[in-house]
Write a structure and sequence with these properties.
With 215 residues, the protein is of the alpha/beta class.
Amino acid sequence: MLHYLPGCDVRNNHPKAIEKLTEYMKRQGAFVDKCCRTSEKLLGGGDMIVQNCTLCELLLKETHPDNPCLSTYEYVLRDGTFPWVSHRNEMITIQDCLRTKDNLAMQKAVRECLRKMDFIVVELEENYDRTRFDGMWIYGKPMQNCIDTAPAVMKYIMDNYTEILPEEEKIRRMKEWVKQYRTDRVIVYCNGCEKGIKAGGGKPVHIVELLAEGL
């Protein structure tokens, strides 16, 4: 069975885009799940889930390791009839997320989606598995329900990447980070990255907004 997980924060931040993508996934025959942190069993044996949240993807790797999990970006590339909207060679920077360091398939899919929409992708020096950026998310303790859901992966992140900082220092680091961008807009596929770039004065665009344009 095919499942679609919209992602709580992605849906809250981009309700119209997620509504369109949800309807698209329903037409694909997907069952729409509410939250990856539900106490009930999310998937059955052999079920596949499609999601557009990097945190959901991390948690699902631990809670449902035997179920295939694809990003929405990988899924739509398999659809030969997906309605791509051209952006006429606009140059746009792509911001990879710490949570996807080990997910080359997702990272490549995001870039291929952008090329399908006729963007010229501008790469940062710290990209792919070199990225350590996650907005302000790594400068505070993860939510307790995430720790309870996937204790192993959350412990790894806290032990290796988390640095607890006061709010003013978080903002200072975000402002410093966005100085490197050389395009007006920056593509993100992570809620933490999006929030952090906004806090630093940048102009993030979540890729779900672009995918929804033609739906």
